[in-house]
Design a protein that fits this description.
Layout lengths: L1 H14 L2 E3 L48 E11 L29 H10 L10 H9 L3 E13 L4 H5 L19 H13 L9 E6 L36 E2 L7 E2 H4 L9 E3 L5 H10 L55 H6 L8 E5 H7 L2 E6 L12 E5 L28 E7 L12 E7 L17 E3 L10 E4 L5 E3 L24 E4 L4 E10 L5 E9 L10 E4 L3 E3 L4 E10 L21 E11 L3 E5 L3 E5 L3 E10 L6 E10 L6 E9 L1
Parallel strand pairs: 2-3, 2-4, 4-7, 8-10, 20-27
Antiparallel strand pairs: 1-16, 5-6, 9-18, 10-11, 11-12, 12-13, 14-15, 16-17, 17-18, 19-21, 21-25, 22-24, 22-26, 23-25, 26-27
Length: 672
C-alpha cells in the first residue's frame, strides 16, 4: 500500500500541483533560534478538554445572545422494548461501557438531551450546538427555542429499525424483514400525543432515540474489539444462537451484531445517544450543505476532500479523544467539538460576504503583478485592515481549471475532475470551535461554484472543496491496535492524513511556506505572521501569476551595519529591506474588487550565509513583502562556536520574485 501511495504521490507532485518545501538556509547555516512558525500537529487521539481555548472576550454559547435568524427545534425522545435510554442505566453498566455519568430518570431524558445540546453546563463543558452556529455565523444564526416531547415507547424493537441498511436485512433474530425508517413510527406516537399539526410549529425536529448510532460503534465494537468475526462472543452476537454473531456494515465486511443492529445517521435529524454530529446534520437541514466525506476504507483509496478542517467533512468528528471515542454517552468526546466551516461554506451560508475576501482574478494578476494582504484567523472577525481570506478566481481562457486529468484509480491523491473555480486561503487558529483542529496555520483550497457533483473515477464522492496538502506523503500513523497486538495503519484515504496539511511562515517550520500550481499558473506565499494583543493570529499572504509581473517598476536595496561585534553567545544583525520600485497606475476594475491598495508590494526571497570557521548564521524567515517606497526590518542571528575564527563574513541577499534581475546584497563583518 505504501509503495502504491509513494508512486501515486510522485505522479501527483510531478504533473499536478507542486508544493515547495520551506526555503532552505544557505550552506553552513545552523539553528540558533526556534522557528518563526513551527508546525505543531496534535493528533486527535491525544486531545483532551484541556485543549479547548475560548475566543477572547466572546462567549457565543451565552443563551442571552439573540441571533438575527432564530431556529425553533423540537426534541422527541423514544426508546424500545430491547433498548432503554443508556443515560437511565447505572454508570458504566451497559455492554459499551456507558453511561459516563450517574443515571437520569426516564421521564427526564427529553429535557436532559435538549439542555445538553442547547444550554451551556458542566456535563457539556459549556459547548452547545447553538454556540457553534452563533460562533460560525457571528450571531446571524442560532437555536432560539427548544421544546421537548416524550419519552415514547416505540412499537418495535431497536433492531427492527437498525437492520434495514447495508445488507443487514437477513440478520433479524426472528427472520422478519424490516421496512421503513423509525421516523414514521416515532412521528405517529408524537402526533397521537401532541396533535397531527405539531411538527409545523418547528424549523427542525430532532428525534433522539435510545441506544447508539451505528456510525459511532461499528468499528470500535467490531474489528477493533475482535480479531475476526469468528471471535465474537454470544453476548455481542445475534440473540438467535442459530444465526451468525456478525453482520455486514457500511465500510467493511463485518461488525458484531450488537453494534451493527443500530441505525446509521444517514444525514437525518435522528440521533442515538452517542451521536455528536447533530451540528453537522443541521448543516444539511438548515443550509442545504452536502457532505464532503469519502469512504476511507474501500479500495482503490481516494483521498479525503477537507478532512479535519471543515464540519461538513470529518471535521464533524473533532473533539477530545478523536474519532474512536464517538461511542461515549453522553457525547462528550469524539465529535463533541466539530471544526469550524471553511470560508467556502461560510460564504454559501451568507455568514460572510465576498467583501470579506481580497478577491482577485488569475488572468489580471499577470497584468497587475502580485497581491499581498493580511488575513485574520477564521474563528474571529477580521482585524482592521485585514481580510477573512484570499480568493483567486480561475478565469481567462477555458478550461478554467487547467489541472491535467489523471486516473483516480491509480492516484489516490487525485482531486478527480478538474472543474474547480477558485482558490481560497484562510487562517486556522486553535481557538473556539477550531480548538480541536490539529494545527494552527494557513489553509489553502480549491473550490467549486456548485455544491454537488461527483469527482469521478471509482469510489468517487462529492468534493466541492479540495484542501491542498502541504504534506501529501503518508502520515504514517496507527489507526488502532487489534486485540492480538497487530497495528492497523490509517489508510491513505483516512481524513487524518490531512492533519499536517497547513502551510506555515518562515524557515524550518516543518511545513511549507509556499505553493505553486504550475498548470494554473499561480504561486502562493505565506509571507509572515503576527499576533494581536489577544493572541489572534494574522498572516501575510501573497499570490502572483507565473505569466506576468505587471507594469510596476521593481527595485531593492539592503541597508545593514558593516561591522558587528559578538560578545559571547549569539548576536542579532538587523538589516533593512527597502523597495525602491514605484507602483504603477492600475485600473480599479481589473480585479473582481478594487485591489489597488494591495498591488504595490513586491515579494522578496531572502538568504543568509557565513564564511568563517566555527560560525553559524540563522535567518528565521526567507520571504518578505514590502510596499513600493517602504522599508522592512529583518534579523539574521549570528554566533561563534568553540574554536571559531576571530571574524567572519555574513552575506545577506534579497531577490525579487517578480523580476529575478532585481536583487540586493549586503556584507557584514562579524568579529569576537
Amino acid at each position: 500500500m505504501k509503495a502504491l501511495f509513494r508512486f501515486a504521490g510522485l505522479v501527483f507532485l510531478s504533473f499536478l500541483l507542486i508544493p515547495f518545501p520551506a526555503v532552505s538556509q544557505a550552506p553552513g547555516a545552523g539553528r540558533l533560534r526556534p522557528p518563526l512558525d513551527p508546525q505543531r500537529v496534535q493528533d486527535q487521539d491525544e486531545m483532551t478538554w484541556a485543549d479547548y481555548r475560548p475566543i477572547p472576550g466572546r462567549d457565543w454559547a451565552d443563551p442571552a445572545l439573540k441571533p438575527e435568524r432564530g431556529f425553533k427545534l423540537a426534541v422527541v425522545a423514544i426508546d424500545f422494548s430491547d433498548q432503554p435510554f443508556v443515560i437511565t442505566l447505572p454508570k458504566g453498566s451497559d455492554p459499551f461501557g456507558n453511561p459516563q455519568i450517574d443515571p437520569i430518570a426516564r421521564v427526564d431524558v427529553p429535557r436532559f438531551y435538549a439542555d445538553f445540546f442547547t444550554k451551556p453546563g458542566t456535563v457539556n463543558h459549556g459547548q452547545t450546538i447553538n454556540g457553534y452556529w452563533m460562533e460560525q455565523s457571528r450571531g446571524r444564526f442560532g437555536i432560539t427555542e427548544v421544546e421537548t416531547f416524550g419519552p415514547y415507547r416505540m412499537p418495535k424493537p431497536l433492531w427492527h429499525y437498525g437492520l434495514n441498511e447495508w445488507g443487514q436485512n437477513a440478520s433479524t433474530p426472528d427472520g422478519s424483514k424490516p421496512e421503513g425508517r423509525m421516523e414514521r413510527d416515532c412521528d405517529a406516537l408524537w402526533a397521537s400525543d401532541a396533535g397531527p399539526d405539531v411538527p409545523k410549529k418547528f424549523d427542525a425536529v430532532l428525534r433522539m432515540y435510545a441506544g447508539y448510532d451505528e456510525t459511532g460503534v461499528w468499528q470500535e465494537f467490531g474489528e477493533m474489539k475482535f480479531n475476526n468475526k469468528e471471535d465474537i462472543p454470544p453476548e455481542w452476537g445475534n440473540p438467535n444462537p442459530a444465526k451468525p454473531r456478525w453482520i455486514p456494515t457500511r465500510y467493511v465486511e463485518w461488525t458484531s451484531w450488537l453494534a451493527g443492529s443500530r441505525q446509521w445517521g444517514l444525514s437525518s435529524m435522528r440521533q442515538g445517544e452517542n451521536s455528536g454530529t447533530i451540528t453537522h446534520e443541521l448543516g444539511h437541514f438548515a443550509f442545504d450543505l452536502p457532505d464532503l466525506n469519502n469512504n476511507p476504507y474501500v479500495k482503490p483509496y481516494r483521498r479525503v476532500a477537507a478532512g479535519p478542517w471543515d464540519m461538513m467533512d470529518r471535521g464533524s468528528f473533532n473533539g477530545p479523544g478523536g474519532p474512536h471515542r464517538r461511542w461515549v454517552v453522553p457525547p462528550i468526546q469524539g465529535a463533541a467539538m466539530p471544526a469550524g466551516l471553511m470560508v467556502r461554506n461560510r460564504l454559501e451560508n451568507k455568514f460572510i460576504t465576498e467583501a470579506a475576501f481580497l478577491k482577485v482574478s488569475r488572468r489580471e494578476l499577470a497584468e497587475t503583478g502580485p497581491v499581498a494582504a493580511e488575513v485574520t484567523a477564521r474563528a474571529v472577525e477580521p482585524l482592521p485592515g485585514t481580510f477573512t481570506g484570499l480568493m483567486v478566481r480561475l478565469d481567462g481562457a477555458e478550461p478554467f481549471d487547467r489541472t491535467p486529468v489523471d486516473d483516480p484509480a491509480a492516484n489516490p491523491l487525485s482531486p478527480g475532475k478538474p472543474n474547480y473555480a477558485c482558490y481560497t486561503a484562510e487562517v486556522v487558529q486553535r481557538i473556539g470551535y477550531d480548538s480541536f483542529t490539529p494545527d494552527n496555520g494557513v489553509l489553502i483550497a480549491k473550490n467549486k461554484d456548485g455544491l454537488r457533483g461527483q469527482n469521478g473515477g471509482p469510489n468517487g464522492f462529492n468534493s466541492y472543496i479540495w484542501v491542498i496538502d502541504a504534506h501529501p506523503e503518508d502520515i504514517g500513523k496507527v489507526d488502532y491496535v487489534k486485540p492480538d497486538g497487530r497495528k492497523i495503519m490509517r489508510t491513505v484515504a483516512d481524513y487524518r492524513q490531512l492533519n499536517d496539511a497547513l502551510f506555515h511562515a518562515g524557515l524550518d517550520s516543518g511545513s511549507a511556506c509556499e505553493w505553486i500550481d504550475e498548470p494554473n499558473r499561480l504561486h502562493f506565499y505565506v509571507v509572515d505572521l503576527r499576533k494581536d494583543k489577544d493572541g489572534i493570529l494574522v498572516y501575510t499572504l501573497a499570490v502572483r501569476s507565473l505569466d506576468g509581473a505587471g507594469p510596476t517598476k521593481r527595485g531593492i536595496v539592503i541597508k545593514a551595519p558593516t561591522v558587528v561585534n559578538v560578545h559571547g553567545g549569539e548576536v542579532p544583525v538587523v538589516f533593512e529591506l527597502k523597495n525602491t520600485g514605484a507602483a504603477a497606475e492600475t485600473d480599479a476594475a481589473l480585479h473582481p474588487m478594487d485591489a489597488r491598495a494591495f498591488l504595490d508590494s513586491d515579494i522578496y526571497r531572502l538568504t543568509a550565509s557565513v564564511e568563517g570557521k566555527g560560525w553559524t548564521v540563522q535567518l528565521l524567515n526567507g520571504l518578505a513583502a514590502v510596499k513600493a517606497g517602504h522599508s522592512l526590518s529583518r534579523t539574521v542571528y549570528v554566533a561563534a562556536g568553540e574554536g571559531s575564527s576571530r571574524s567572519a563574513i555574513v552575506t545577506i541577499r534579497a531577490v525579487s520574485e517578480s523580476d529575478a534581475t532585481k536583487s540586493a546584497t549586503a556584507v557584514v563583518k562579524v568579529a569576537r
